[in-house]
Amino acid sequence: MNANVAVNPSYLVYAPGDGNVYMSNFGDDLTDHPQAVAGSKLAALGEGLKAAGATCPEGCTVPQWHDLLDREEGGLRGVVWQAVGDILGIRISRADVEQGRLPAARLTGPYT
User: Fold this and answer.
1) Is 33 in contact with 22 (CB distance < 8 Å)?
2) pLDDT per residue over 56-84, tens digit each?
């Protein structure tokens, strides 16, 4: 498992269980994605991230927004991880995330 700290920007990879996998930069608006149709899991995650302040608000430049998050919210990564945890009901300690000690599962398939 990689802590994903040295990678800039960090990526959010979301596999909602519908056979699709979506990848975006931290801070990108998932509701802009073509598959984020009303009622979809992707749209719900995108709206939740927006509500949590994990996407750049209108009228704000990305550097201004990052500075604000760094001062008041513990940075973009912290805001994204907290929002994803809250939205999806995932409870993993922040220390485990920051140190790259996330639980992992390997699913067997027809090609393994």
Assistant:
1) yes
2) 888 888 788 888 888 877 777 777 777 88
**CA–CA separation, 85 and 29 (whole Å):** 17
Q: Give the integer Cα–Cα distance in Å for 14 and 42.
A: 8
Residue 48: half-sphere exposure toward Cβ, Cα within 13 Å: 18
3-class secondary structure, 23 = strand
User: What single-letter DSSP state applies at residue 12?
Assistant: E
Euclidean distance between CA atoms 101 and 92, whole angstroms = 10
* DSSP H/E element including 55: none
Beta-ladder partners of 25: 11
pTM above 0.70, yes or no: no
